[in-house]
Amino acid sequence: MRLPKSLTSWFYVSPLLLVLIPFFVMPIIVVIAASFMQGDGFGGIVPTFTWENYQGVFSEKLTWNLYLSTVKFTILTWFFTLIIGFWIAYYLVFHIRSELLAMGLFLLCTVPFWTSNIIRMISWIPLLGQNGLVNMALVGSGVVKEPLKVLLFSDFSVVVAYVHQLTIFMIVPVFNSLARVDKRIVEAALDAGASRWDIMRRIILPLSRSGIALGSIFVISIVMGDFFVVKVMSGGNSASVVAALFENISVLQYPPAAAHAVVLMIVVVLMIGAILRTVDIRKEIAQ
Amino acid sequence: MKAPVIRPPLDRRPWTFYVLTALFVSYVLALYGPMLCIYLLSFQDLRGGLVFPMKGLSVHWFVDLFTQVRTGDVKGSFDRSIKLAVLVTLITVVVSFLAGMAFRRRFRGDTAVFYLMIGSLVAPGLVLGIGIGLLFQFFHLEPSWFTSALGAQLSLTLPFGVLVMFAVISRFDRRWEEAARDLGASPWQITRMVVIPILLPGLVAVALFGFTLSYDEFARTLQTSGSLNTLPVEIWTMTLNVTSPSLYALGTVTTIVSFIIIGVCLGSIAQMQKRRAMRKATH
User: Which domains does chain B have, with CATH numbers?
Assistant: First the structure.
């Protein structure tokens, strides 16, 4: 007996769903539900409906500052990862002629991704600190008289840590989409008299659009959902939405934290939705 | 007839090549440089601090790490992290393989499953952790590293694993499978003797993602690991209250473990590709 084809497919994805439903769908539903309930102040939740948590979120002036600061970090990180990631991927695909060497250099960029993020973050401390290597070099060479204080535990170090961690999320998808570009198209354009700038603008950029979109989704969702880079690298001077939410739950205020989380998720979904309108990632990834 | 266009010799590199080479070199330096610094600094002696210059040369802080109470339960959390990572890897490889096979053709509701996966991948880790914690509380279950934290980590590693499978399967030539069927192989034989051996390097790559993502996972694990910590959660507590090079020593130890895993996985993939290339050459 043969099963209908659709049923076999569902049979194959069922283990995936058996994990995603209890550990993704249900937790999100629980968070949404908790955001409409009252806390008892001891980490428990009383099942009575209330708008209070959302009123709290929207009436606090702090909320706007949190979003402003989070969006600022997101835009800065997105900008730098995009610029660096795009040019690195472009370099590997179009400037390295040996395929083996390109693959080796690509792996060289990828290896740190498989190591601990936290360790990579704290490894900036001996470099950027007041007595760190960068300051020693700057003072030693006479560029500045006093060691710079803004290098560590500032917005600067937060962005440095983000870019350090996340550029790989731009390199990989852009590399993939550029590697699929038929080099004969570029040849043909050259033969037809296109300048190098024309080729970049009319061929390379449009064809790398899906990779850029995919990378942007990763970078934006990670920075919007981060709390530990901001907490450690800003030395407590800056906050993010999730860092504030983390403070809430450490004093067992679950419902207000849940309301914050729901608002954040709506913002992230809207941002990702806007990116998805420009490109069909399903087709890009699963083709 | 037109004469063929004579191209300028290919070796003449445009100026952009040199600019981009400089960019690439500085990127790699910035990628590895800071990590090298903390490996160096972890080998200081008793007088060592958190910044350069190096003070002495010893393994004092590594001993300190595993013997002192003040630095927390490093040994226990290290042990748990490895066990959890192995568990996550096994489940990720099997489930991602099956899901990847399902996605080879369209089926009713496939888009919904796909976006469910993307959602799970990009969801803020801490929020998901809180949700799982509340869910366990609702059902009166005790959160622990091998139940709630395992599920929380799978919600990240499975979407990653399936995405890697997509890339692997897109290069799979279905004619091999058809040839096996024509020769009378059963579906199980086709999977075991044709599909899995061909996809094996890809499955090793999925395992690499599964292990390293789990071993370093922090945001989703923080609220779900229960009373016993995993290593990244332990490191997180250390970043907040330990100000000695033992923090760097821990960084060195966990990175060595990561590098061993990466080396074994990439090495075995390269070995398989090489053997294949050789076999192709002899036939």
Answer: 73-282 (1.10.3720.10)
